[in-house]
Amino acid sequence: MFNCLKYFLTIACVMCISIDITAQPTTPVQRFVGIGRDATPAEVKAWDIDVRPDFEGLPKGSGSVKLGQEIWESKCATCHGIFGESNEVFNPLIGGTTQQDIQTGKVANLKNTEYPSRSTIMRVATLSTLWDYINRAMPWNQPKSLSVQEVYAVTGYMLHLADIIPGEFVLSNDNINDVQKKMPNRNGMTTQHAKWPGTEFNPIIGPDTQNVACIKNCAPEPRITSFLPDFARNAHGNLQEQNRGVGPQRGLNTLVSKGSALPISVVSTSDANKPTEKSLNQMAMALFAKHGCAVCHGMDKKIVGPSISDITKKHANQADYLTAKIRAGGSGVWGNISMPAQSLPLADAKSIGQWIAQGAGR
Ligand code: HEC
Ligand code: HEC
After folding, report:
1. Any residues with Cβ below 6 Å from ligand 2, and which?
2. How much is the pLDDT for 33?
3. What is the C-alpha separation between 302 and 323, in angstroms, rounded?
4. What is the whole-number distance in angstroms between the Cα of residue 339 and the centre of ligand 1?
5. 91 HSE (CA, 13 A, CB side)
C-alpha cells in the first residue's frame, strides 16, 4: 500500500517536471526528450579555455619568474622536484636541453639513446601546450586553482629552470610569441605520419615504422659491463621507491639481493622454513613496490597519499581494516584525494596490511 502510494507520487512528480521544462524547447534534443536547456554563455565560457599554438584563446596577463619560483616551491616541487627533475610521481619535467637546442629548435638528446630520460621540456614543441596544461590540470591535487597571473609566472619559472629565459623575466601575452621562438624542440614536431590528424591532411596511410627483421650480422647480445656491488646496494635507500613504477626509468629494488626477484631472506628461509620478521617485512616491501603503491605513498613522505609511517601511527594493529581498505580504496580519511581501488591478490593485500599494522619495519 505504501509502496503503491510512493510509486504514484513519483510518477506525478516526473510528469510535473517534464511539463514545466518542455514549455520552451529550443534544441532538437530538448524537443525530442523534453529535458535540458541551452548552456548559458557563462557556462560555455567556463569550458572554453583551450589555448592554441598561435596563442588564440590565451588570456591577457603576465607573471614574473620570481613569483613563479614561489608558486613552484609551494605547489609543484613536492611532486616534480625543486628543479623539475624528480622522477618520483611523474617523468622529469626539466632537463636534457642545451643552449645549442635553443638555437636549432631541435633537441639533440632525443636522438641520443644513451641519454636516460625524455623530459617534458625536451619534447614539447609549443609553449601554448605548457601554458594550457598547467592552467587546466595543475597542481594535480587542485586543478584550476591558479590565477592567470600565477599560470604565467610558474610557466615562466619552468622556462627559467630550462635556461630559456632569464631570472628577471616577466612572461606575458605580449612576449610569449618571442619566447616560443626559443623553445628547444620547436622544430622537432612533425605531422608527417599516419596518426596525425588523418588522411584528409596527410597522404601517408601506412604505419610510420618500417622495421625489417634482422637475419644476419645482427646487433650483438647485450653484455652487462657494470653493476651495483652488494655492499653499495642500499647506500641511498631503496632506489625503486624513489622512481616511478612505470615509464622508461625504473629504480632497482636495492633491498633484494642481486639476481633474485625476492628478498634473499625470503628465498632461503632458514629454521624449518619459518620466515623471519625481517624476511616478512622485506616481502611486504617488495609487494608494495610490485603493485605500484610507492607511486603514491612514500615511506616517510606524503606524496599523493599519506606516508606509510603516518598510516602506521593511525592504524596500529588494524591489519584487517587495512587489508580491506587497500583493495577497496576510498577517500576522506586523509583528505579529499581518493585512493583508487587496487586489484592485487588478497594474499598480497594481507601481507602489506599486516606489515603496516605492525609498524612497517624495514
Ligand atoms: C600531487 C602531485 C603533483 C603536483 C603538486 C603537481 N603536479 Fe604536475 N603532474 C603530476 C602528475 C601525476 C602528472 C602527470 C599527469 C598525467 O599525465 O595525467 C603531472 C604533469 C605535469 C605536467 C605535464 C607534463 C607532461 O609531459 O605531460 C606539467 C607541465 C606539470 N605537471 C606542471 C606542474 C606545475 C606547474 C605544478 C604546480 C603549479 C604541478 N605540476 C603540481 C603531479 C603533480
Ligand atoms: C593513485 C594514488 C594511490 C595509489 C596507487 C595507492 N594509494 Fe593508498 N592512498 C592514496 C590516497 C590519496 C589515500 C588517502 C585516502 C583517504 O584519505 O581516505 C590512500 C590511503 C591509503 C591507506 C590508508 C587508508 C586509511 O583508511 O587510512 C593505505 C593503508 C593505503 N593507501 C595503502 C595502499 C597500498 C598498499 C597501495 C598499493 C596496493 C596503495 N595504497 C596505492 C593514494 C594511492
Report:
1. 288, 291-293, 295-297, 304-306, 311, 314-315, 322, 325-326, 330-335, 337-340, 342, 344, 352, 356
2. 74
3. 20
4. 18
5. 16
Determine the Cα–Cα distance for residues 86 and 92; give it in Å rounded to an integer.
Answer: 5
Q: Are 273 and 279 in contact (CB under 8 A)?
A: no
The Cα–Cα gap between 63 and 173 comes to: 10
pLDDT for position 152: 98
CA distance 104 to 81: 28
C-alpha cell at 190: 612533425
Q: How far is CA 159 from CA 56, 147, 182, 348, in A?
A: 21, 18, 10, 43
Sign of the dihedral through C-alpha 292, 296, 300, 301: positive
pLDDT of residue 286: 86
Cis? peptide before 139, omega within 30° of 0: yes
| CB contact at 8 A, 297 and 303 | yes
Q: Which three cell numbers stand for residue 73?
A: 616551491
pLDDT recorded at residue 56: 96
**Splitting the chain (362 residues) into consecutive groups of 10 residues, what average pLDDT does each group show?**
44 42 59 80 92 96 98 95 91 96 97 88 98 97 96 98 98 98 95 66 62 81 72 80 76 69 39 66 87 90 93 94 94 91 89 94 88
User: What's the confidence (pLDDT) of residue 215?
Assistant: 85
